[in-house]
Amino acid sequence: MLIASLSAVLAAIVVIRALSRAVTVMGSVNFNGMTIVVDAGHGGKDPGARSAAIDEDEINLKTAQKLKVLLEGAGAEVIMIRESDVDLAPEGASHVKREDLKKRVEIMNQPQVTLFISIHCNISLDSRVQGSDVYYQKDNPASYQLAQAVQGRLKAVTHSRLKPKTGDIYILKQTQTLGILAEIGFLSNQEDLARLQKEEYLEEIAYALFQGIDDFMKILQ
Ligand SMILES: [Zn+2]
Hints:
The protein is an alpha/beta fold. It has two domains: 1-29; 31-220, 3-Layer(aba) Sandwich (Aminopeptidase). It has seven helices and five strands; from the N terminus they run H-E-H-E-H-E-E-H-H-E-H-H. A five-stranded mixed β-sheet has the order 2-1-3-5-4, sandwiched between helices. The longest helix has 25 residues, at 2-26. The site of zinc ion has 6 residues, from loops.
């Protein structure tokens, strides 16, 4: 009995949350006319960072799919780099990772693309480091602003203390289109690892990514 009423309360909370989100999405910037590339990092032959419990590529894809729904709901055209467990290297490629990244950059560099967001999970030798970590394109003020906006929203969910940074990241160096790379948590941190396996947590992350893009668009208007 107690369990039944508790689950009813929980169901009600889920509905209320979904409704408040729908209202917020409606109150956001109109994304009509925007084309956003959502890049779920890794996939196929390249699982990305691994822990005993999970592979990075799976979490990236789940989050990317949730972000896609939100962006499309706000009117954006979304190009997904991948929608299943695949890499983008041609069959029989001798350098799978390099060919895969080259193809991703090609998609991001298409002229109709407004911006791209690359979704990854991090790993650190220091298991205490946790939370989101966002990278921007060097010497690109718009990319820095986008990274700040997205990390601002992610921080509220992941409790990260990390500031946006640049790095030696192929995708960020080879793209002409505006974009960022968001590491949504550390698989090397027990707390992050546990919550990254929860669908509801990935919903929160996707929504924070969406809000960050929305905040950035408002700065531009
Ligand atoms: Zn990665």
